[in-house]
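Archive transcription. Copying these from loose printouts into the bound notebook so they stop getting lost. Printout 1 of 2:
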Amino acid sequence: MPSIIAKALELSRQELLDIGLRGNTLLHFKPRSESLTIVDEISVEIFNILITEQKLMSFLPIPKGKENNNIEIFDQLPDLFSEDLDPKRHTDTRLQTKLNQDQLDKKLIKINTEAETYFQEQGIDILYLALGFLSWYEDDNSELERLAPLVLIPVSLNRTTAIERFKLKYTQVDLGTNLTLKAKLKTDFSIELPDFEEETDITDYFSKVNLAIKKKVRWKIVENEIHLGFFKFGKFQMYQDLDSKNWPDGKVPSEHPIIQSLFGEGFHSLEDNENSETVDDLDESVSGELKTLDNFHFISDADSSQTEAIMQIKKGKNLVIQGPPGTGKSQTITNIISESLADNKKILFVSEKMVALEVVKRRLDNCQLGDCVLELHSHKSNKRAVLDELGRTIDLGKPKIDDRSVKKSRYKEIQKRLDNYCEATKQPILNSKINFVDAVGNLLRYKEVTEMYNLNDLNIESFENWSKEEFIEGAAVIKELIAYLNEHKSPSRNLFNVASIDNISPSDEKFIEGKLIEISDLIKKLKTEALKLKESIPFESMISINEVNKIKNAIDLLKTKPDLTDINCLTPDWFKKGQNISDVISNGQNTKEIYNKNSSILIDKAFDYDFTFIKKTYSIQGSKWYRFFYKDYRESRNTFKNLLKVKQPSVPESINLINEILNYQESKKAVFKSEKNLELLYGDKWKGLDSNWSELKEAYSWLNQLYEQIENNKIPSDFPSLINTKLDPNTLFKQEEIVKSLNENLKLQVEALQKKLEIKVEEAYLEMDIDSFLNQVDNMKENLEDLFTIARYNLLCNKLNLLKLSEIAALGFDWSIPPKILLSLYEYNWHLSLVNSAYNSRDSIKYFDGIGHLNDIQEFKILDNELAFFAQEQLVLKHFNNLPNVYAPGEMALIRREINKKKRHIPIRQLLLKAGNAVQQIKPVFMMSPMSVATFLVQGAMEFDLVIFDEASQVKVVDALIPILRGKQIVVVGDSKQMPPTDFFSRTYENEEDEEENKTGDIESILGMFLAQGVNENMLKWHYRSKHDSLINVSNQEFYDGRLMVFPSSGANEKATGLKFNHFPESIYERGTSRTNPLEARKVAEKVMIHAKTNPELTLGVVAFSTAQRDCIILELERLRRQDSSSEKFFSKINLEEFFIKNLENVQGDERDVIYISIGYGRTVDKRVTSSFGPVNREGGERRLNVLITRARLAMEVFCNFTADDLATQSTTPFGVKALKSFLKYAESGVLENRFETGKETDSPFEDEVISAIKKMGYEVEPQVGSAGFFIDIAVKDPRKPGKYVLAIECDGATYHSSVSARDRDRLRQNVLEGMGWKFHRIWSTDWFRTQARQIELLKKAIEIEINQSNHTSNFVKVVKNTNKDTPIQKIATIQRNKVVHNVPTVNKYKIIKTIPNLSFYVELLEVPVSKISDYLFSILKEEGVIHITDAAKRITDSYGIGRIGNRIYEKIVQGAKYGHQNNLFFYSNEFLYHDANKIVEVRDRSELEPSFKKIENITPEEIQKALINTISMAFSLPKEEAISEALSSMGFNRATEKASTIVSAEIAKLFKEKKIKQEDNRIVIN
């Protein structure tokens, strides 16, 4: 694989090689339209003036009178002054040309335009003044002389106003050799061209070149051949950079992981190896982090789409960020850089477009992180500028930073509250899939309807737990019921309304009809027979089926009637007091039975005797054997004996007998208690205890049954009065049998009919009189069609019952109001249950306070805005803390020397090679173009954690490889719908109408390459730039499928006029000659001048479709500016966003308040509209158009000599031309086909309620105002200014909930819209639900205030302040710094212990216990730190006044060391005392110690290694000898002796072995 990739890389590298002769000005220069020949000058003098003396030079036209005046007067620019030739012309600062003044001015304007264009597009200066040329030939036989420049001075043309002449200035960029010529001579002729450097004497250099070419007879140096022109040799440096031979081992390009992914199997395998996190895991983590944004350091606003991208980058992902026009790419890059700085990463930001680099740098400056940036592109890359910037940065004072923890904590608290409310109103309620806002909206919508009809709430069990699917299913059935009720009468009026049958077959219908006929006949017969029966028994009730049955029951009861003579039969007491009667009869029977049983045993007196005492005595004493000793027992026994007729029984038998007598007495008592009542009932049959109880019981049972059936409505109530009448039993019973038979048959038939009809209320017909029943049956026969309608109703009821909507079914049975209200009632009650559920279960809703919530939002806005500043503070402090010490050795020493030098600085490439680590520490962010990377960064010498490409669609793959090789992680920012890489500029000399024939490679840009290889991709979606949606609508529809979130215009900013079409049919496109439209160019120039005078506060840019048209406009404007210089300030280059005139190819990355577009092409002199539009016709031409039409913030005007309808297109017409036609059509008409815009439906029913309330106030509203992606919920129209809105009303509905973070939801979106002139009023659904009247009152007041303000004030001034950026940068405050203080790096001084505590002077040292010696050593170690045992011994002997350490004393002290080690007092190893086994040491400065106290051999290896690590870390990189010297110096040794060097070298070897350090280019660095 590596060999395959290496081959692919080499093929790519060959694209950069250009040592051919065609068009190569570095090898074969020929004067042309974009060059200026200098005559009658001396190269040496010019070099001295420009380089040595650093003076500006001007240009002289041909002297007056020597002009070749062959140009028309009207074509000349106004001649401002005349100059005579200076006799000292070779040493003055004026360069002689051979052009007249007009030609010279036009030539310089052309050259300057092209130079600026290339500088802005490629990031390098290609304008050089070439001094001295090599005249050479390809071979000995060639007659064609070639001229190659030898000395190239990078220069720029400068002037401040149009009335000034151009001045030539040396740009301070390093001088160098013509590398292309050097390679050509070496490759083809084996000639080594001498190197040219700034210090080189030009005369000497010419001499060296002469010496090098001396073997070539015809070759010579033309020393005073001088030309100003374009020379591009940067590609050759890039070619050399990609040569794998120039890369160190282990860093060859083909082995780089990113290169392997680009040229190999793609990024999936690389990403999988680096991070096993799945896409779902990533999405989940991103979703969570988007809400909290914890651990992020955004220094500028970031919407959710930007934040998602930054999160992936923070996770280490290689990423493509698709940034459509105006979506905040530079803003995102700024935050990517800040996040990377927070993670201590080194960043390389790369773009060929100068505007891209400058915009990000400006943002970083505004965010106070500009000090972290080193610009190494264009004029920013000269040695002095780089060194000055490094010096300025390291001299920064420490920033003054306040404690922000309280505010940050408060921010999180408020953010959580805001998020909680949003979640509470956003999350579906239970299973409903309906959120609180929608539930409230629907509730309010249906509440009015239900209140209108005064309907009661439904009581549907667990209604709030219903799912949306269940609810919809129920609604569908209710809609069926509504349709039924609309078509048919109320089910309660249906003759078959008691039927439950839900389907009727033809056979069912026939059966039912038959049954109805049969039942009708039976009823008629029953009526006849029942009348006969009634004649026999004179009942007073009407004849009904039920009454017939009652009569039948009465007759049946008569059959069992007992003798009731003398008994009162007419009282209902037989049933009402039945239980009492029954109890008396039972007691009477009981007394009789007990008396009859015991009358032969007891005398009659005994039946009334009180046996209580006897029973008690017998129960207690009777069972004891000694009972006879009890007096009570003896007396009770004697008394009982006197009541007996027989021999006295045993005690148990006696007790049983006594119990029976007591039972008798109770029954007797009960009989006597009710005696009067029973005497009234039974009359003479009542005999007291002597009554015939059997006879009484029989009478009671019959009468009780009689009255029970009367009570139960089974016998006629007047039947008791007929009991004692004389009836003919035979006739009566016979007739009863007939009725009974008919009745039973009727019952069978009715039951059969009920079963078929599924009538659940049985025998309901029994209550009807026979005539009514017969009438009903006959009606049923005649209206059998009602069967089908009731069956349909029953089917619906069954469905409703299954859905637990029986209450709805019941309401429908007798519904009398419009049927559709049933559905409203259903809707109302479901949403009411949902709202109540959410209200009761969600605290954020339950305790919501609208005023408090708005206050939270306001505080959140302030804190969120400040959060960016807090992040800036943190990062500024972090940068300061990371700055290397000015006085550090190694790389910082080199930088310090270079800063202090006046001249002869080493080249930037050498500075970065030798001190790159220190430079990166000072400037962790490099801003470069691909070419400057190859120019300044030696292969493999400098790495970056993150490489960011901007405007990546314009960066060729081969160009991008050079920065990629320096990075570990790559972020590619661009837009595949915007400009592809182009060589259009390099061929501006050719016919542009043929440009569409140019073909690109398979993969045209690094953006396409990364996408093709499967890298992760994120799209930025919020469009900030256009303050009028017409400026982005075509692009959004044609190129982005409407995916951009475009903020609507309020109409408040009068300058935000959007798109306008200027038609000049009289102008002509000069196709065959100048390829320009002069009249159109003149109109554009005039419009520019008008703008400069009337709207100078608005920035302006002009874009032409071709270079020729651009140049034509430039000259027209030049003429007008020279005629009227009053507006020159507007055209000044020092403006932040300077005025420009560019062609279509060069405008990507630019934006202005106003853009003028000059089509140029179009209708020719023969009145035909050409279909050729230069680069728009090329493949990808639509992308160029997309860039062009999205550059404006406020307004865009198109200048054209034809209309969209004049432009004929067909199927083969390039997409770019078709898109142009669509754009022109929109510019003319303002109508965009397929545009989805204002007028869409509201997001929620809650918004409908608000709209209804506003309309009732008399105001006009527009729901969902917007054109794409983002819509304002409700906009109130200005009643006096059509097209303007006075107030935006935002509800907490779908738009509010769609934001993933509080920042998007509660600040960013509203900030952007307020910047476009919108005024806001927020309405919370919870407030509206609780206090609707109050909220309507507040809403009305807000509308009235804005209407009044609209009538008296203008928002224009405020609006235009923020038009110069896509997104405003919040700069809350400037971070203040303390005065700079540079401290020489120091280490702690070595301090020798003065007194050893608890020293035993009264005991000889040799007699001191080992434990005591150990204590001495511990005290020394504690005071001095890690120490050699001999040094420790000397401290002890010195304290004892012993001059020399003998063997015995030394051994004694060693024993003490071993004792302390064994007892964990300290750690003793290799003759060194350490605090513990970790052997932690600190470096100590021994410079103040006496020589005898500092011996290198007595310093621990750990301390030496730490001194080395500290030294190398501080120095970033050092040669070995310097590392040894500096390490020894830090430990207090003045010089590196041989012995010391040997010892330190040994420790260096150990560090190498342990891979703690490594060697790069003969320098030691930390590994």
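Printout 2 of 2:
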Amino acid sequence: MAGGKAELANDPELEAVTALYARHAPDLRGGSGERLPRLDTAAEEHLRLAAERPPGEVLVRVRSESAGVGATAEIVTDDMPFLVGAVLVAVSKAGSEVRRLIHPIVVVRRTPDGKLAEVLGDADPATPPPETVVESWIHLDLDQLPTGPDDLQRRLAEAIGHVRRVVGDTPAMTDRARAVADELTSASGRPGATAPGEIARFLQWLVDGHFTFLGHRGYTPDGAPHDAGLGVLRDDRLAAAFAPREGLIAGGDQDDLVVTRASAPSPLRAQHPYVVAVLVRDAQGAVVGEERFAGLLTVPALYESVLDIPVVEHRVREAIRGAGFPLDSYSGQQMLDVLSELPREELFSASEERLRDTATGVLTVIGRSAVRVFGRRDPFRRFISCLVYLPRDRYTTSSRLAMAEVLQRRLGGTSVDHTARVSESRLAQVHFTVHTDTGAGTAIAADTDTGGPDELDLSALQDELGEAVRTWEDRLLAAVADEGGDTAAITAALPGIPDSYKAVAPPERAVEDLKQVAGLSGPGDIGVRLYRGTAGADWRFTFYLAGEPATLTAVLPVLQQLGTEVLDERPAELTRTDGLRVHIYDFGLRLDDATREAVADRSDAEIASGFCASFRAAWTGEAESDGFSALVLRAGLDWREVSMLRAYARYARQLGSPYGHQYMATTLLAHPTVARSLVELFRARFDPGLTGDRDAAIEQALARVRDLIDAVHGLDADRILRGFLGMIAATLRTNYYRRRPFLSFKLDPAQVPDMPAPRPKYEIFVYSPRVEGVHLRFGKVARGGLRWSDRPQDFRTEILGLVKAQAVKNAVIVPVGAKGGFVVRHTERGRAEVEACYRTFISGLLDVTDNLVDGEAVPPPDVVRHDGDDTYLVVAADKGTATFSDIANEVAASYGFWLGDAFASGGSVGYDHKAMGITARGAWESVKRHFRELGVDTQSQDFTVVGIGDMSGDVFGNGMLLSRHIKLIAAFDHRHVFVDPDPDPATSYEERERLFELPHSSWDDYDRSLISPGGGVWPRTAKAVPVSPQMRRALGIADRVEQLSPPELIAAILRAPADLLWNGGIGTYVKATDEPHEAAGDKANDGVRANGSELRVKVVGEGGNLGLTQRGRIEFARNGGKINTDAIDNSAGVDCSDHEVNIKILLDGLVAAGRLTRDERNAVLAEMTDEVAQLVLADNVSQNDVLGIARAHAPAMLNVHRRLTADLEARRGLVRELEVLPDEAGFAELEAAGQGLTSPELATLLAHTKLDLTAAVLDSDLPDTPAFAARLPEYFPRLIRERFPDAIAAHPLRREIIATLLVNEMVDGAGITYAFRLGEELAASPTDAVRAYAVTTAVFELPQLWEQLRAPRIPTAVSDRAILESRRLLDRASRWFLTNRPQPLAVGSAIARFREPVRELRGLIPDLLRGKERESVEESATELTGAGLDAELATRCATLMHSYGLLDIVELVELAEQDREPRDPEEVTALYYAMSNHLGIDLALTSVSALERGDRWHALARLALRDDLYGSLRSITLDAMRESAPGTPIDDTIAAWERANASRLVRARAALHEIGKAGQLDLATLSVVSRQLRGLAR
């Protein structure tokens, strides 16, 4: 048999063994996936082991790491009982586990020396053939062996040795039992003890197949063994472990038969065997020894009727009889049933009295929810046996464990074993064996068999066990009942409560939990509870969440930010009767020392209320979770008060506070008293429920805060806390007490500490966890867009920068500048979140804004105001909110806000800017003006364009359709780059038009076949763009360049040598050379941005906002470029919106009065669209004209501009740095260089001039005077003027509209410095200037003249020169009216007095002029006619300055009438001009105009000279008239005057002759001339 693997492969023995293996275990080739050896491999290895076994020898082999299995054990031995059990016990003691056991009984033939000769696979082991051996082959697949293979091999061999001894000694043990029984048959018994005959019958019963003998040993009276023992008791160690040698014999009153359990488990089976001890007595009854048997009851013995078991039968009968029941009676049978189910151990050990008490005790609890316990001490004092009966439905693993814990604790046990019997009976029986140290433990007081000094009150133990087996449900229902709750509802909810929850939640806590669970409304709803904790936790916090579960990463930060340390967490999930899943998270919390001290004086209810409310607010998103949250516990604030402080901190960060949000929170936490005092101040200022003197309360709260802050150590803390104080004190209104889910603060920026300039007049800050926003207004009547900002850290800085531009832009409209912006905290939630945040922001603004009802201001409810009425709030669309106007109006409507859908212009009912193209059309007026100055007519001549934007955009798309002569050679947006090097204007126009009409088009939709050679469209994601020769020529790219990346191509487009750069997109693409890219505030375009000096276009049109920095514009302009500002170019949009708002205010009043329906109102609006556009574009034309003229003579006006800038700086707070205007040194440099301000600078000065003048006019009664109030209808379209004149007069903003109209008209007509110079020269007020402008322009009919001069056929340079000449007339005439007429100037009467005479005489001037003056006029008229003016217009322009004298002439005519010598006005006019020529007045006036302008004093000197000359001419003319009669020829009149003044005339002519020879008419000589002329007048 001993061969190699090849031999075994065909071995019939291997086949036989493998077949046996297969019968005892499945082949794992189709098994469960465990990595176990194949059966054939295992069989082959086992066969190798069994190859040689001498008779009686045991073969054991243990191998580790066999075929990937932890270990394998193989055994070959003679077949015997108990082998498997003994092997399993040995494996268990070695600390391993069996994964698979294969145990074939193998019939073999062996040679005499033990060699395996044959395996008889088909032989029956029960009837083996002759001369064969029946062997047990055991194969074990094991887990890893902690003690190693050698230890297990030793244990297995030892276990099989025990089996062999037991099997070998079984006959001797049964013989000894029979012998003892025989000896007892004739023995006499003792009173009260079990009769010897009964014991004998019991031993015989055991021998008769009811007991498996494992061992025997006899003992002498002193406890010493008197034989070597049999079976396992041969081993002294096992004999001592099974039962102590002393005890039974020593117990004098002990019964002669003791049946008990062994102290240690059997080595053959994993259970404690029985020990049967029989005392042997002599004839006198003295104990002479003990026979001790160890073994196990057989299966028949376990199920034998108790009435058939000797000893037990007697005790059972006596117990039933002792209870007073016949055995056959009902009660007797019940007792018999109870006793029959007792553990055999108890039947063998209990006395009759104990059996009786047990049975009757059990019967008393049947049908009751009670627990009974019966205890018995082991006679060897090793354990206490406890029988516990309890209702069957109360028996669970948890109740059994609870009872075991009680018994071990109360009985002083070391461990507890149990067996349970649960049948159809209403009672469950649990037999506990409480192991104790020998001699230790507590006796059972009611134990009649074994009393003792350390007795335990069985009744108390029974009560404790009863409490232990009460189910969690029992205790829960009892707790609910105690509170008067609905037990039926709780009972219905019990199926949804998992055991895991019951294991950790006491019923008392569960009552509160279930209340919370029942109160949840549905998925997503939450509940919270805070209560005192135990076991190291200050508090426990329970969070109830319906629906989907939460993660710890979501919950823990909220708890930690509230100032707690989370120690542990106990999760559970319950299901309500309606199927709603509810997750319960119970946390143990600990407070830090400072917080624990802070809450010490507060009640638990107060602490819990604040904490829970704060957590709920944070979880539901009503409040943020951050360092401020800890103020709830530390400072005793509620979560809304904390949110208020948090909002101020957020606002401080937007103001540029150097302290971080968390640092500010930490500071407040370190000074909780100050935090509380700040809240008290806030409450005193704004709580509408405050009673008593609010001012006194504020002063008291303010004083307390200041005192507390004064006591604070540390500069940072002091500054932070004073910052909070300053912001609260500067707050004018808040919606805090309206209890909104957001907070609004209206502040007075002048009072806010450390606010960056410029400071608006009003500011509203809106805060919520979802959105933050700010709205800045520079006046009560202000407007501007609301943008969705993408700059959460400094969005106010962005808005502040934009509002400056808005203020400039708004100079042309009624409201001053305003701007708002908001940031969305959770942009990942999509567009719906943006819309919701926008609604919140709008609501926040309206919450602190007064309404207007029946002409009266109505404050918002629950808002305490610390300012006056403030009803005007309008908004507009901006970046990110282009489609939100209807939403804003919807929100305003929900407030009943008086402006209706005028609140947000551009909604679905209003003027669609894109459809009107109004913004682009307004900017195009700038483009046209710039090109006219270059001699190009954009509407009839081709010109090249590069652009920023695409045709789907409003400004870019509309702009690129405003001329059919556009040659768009390149453009880009955020998606594509478009290049068409040599486009056909007509074809490309049509394609652009197609794209514009195509919804959501992009450059990618452009028909490539229409693009000229070398061009194309490329996505900005492309790696490279090929550069064609045509592209290089068109864009001015170097010849060596073959390809560019999209950013490089965009950079080239910006720097292309085109005619026009049209900005209709988003982004800042041009800066100044000395500016860092950060100044542009547009990091995305840092890589493509150009410097102003790098632009090669001639004109920039700014349809979009912020395309260039202001410094970039100035640099471009200094390098010869034509540019205004975005505020000038795209002001038509805001102008149109303002018209819409003011028209809607008027029409809504008519709707409210019932004079119009809503549909009729909407129809009127639509009907006026074109006229509104014309009104708006007229402003763009006017502003471009005034800027064009200002550019034309900017160097000459530099000193005036310098003084104007300084004046605005001093009076209006203009900040030169912010507005990018030169400082004094900068003006000096420009003067030295002979330069003036650029167009962008002039645009800024223009806007601030208008804003200043408008404010001044509004502060006067000028808008209410009839002469100007009558101008109001001019603002509105014709339809309204004709149909609703009364409504116009009642417009709520009539004063603002009139003021804006008058100022725009004056500044655009008279120039930027007109009013300022009148103020300098005459100390005239702005209202004086308005009056003078109105009179002068009306008297000389200048607006009509200007309109004629704007004709496209007239070159810009010519028209500008003519208009400048008219302004000289305007200046002089205005001064004349302000000097020579009563003040304030009566506009109506002055116009009535002078307009007609001036109009009649104006046409006579060319014929009445004489000498050089006439020649000068004719020469000028001829020149103008040649420049494109018609003869009449040219003549009028040429005689403009001479018409100034008509004012004096009109008065001379009146003086003649007063002298009672009326003269024909024509005669007076002829004399006046003749005298001027005669005296050389015109030469002197011309010389005065040529004087150096210099500073203010130079200007005043020139003015004085000019006035003296005109005054002298007037006086001399009057003198001449008085020297001659009316009708005297002019020359005769002059001659008469000369004769009358001969002596003075001689002296004057001599002086004038000397001056004439000098050839120099400077200030000194002109002063002499003026004096000489004055001397000629009487």
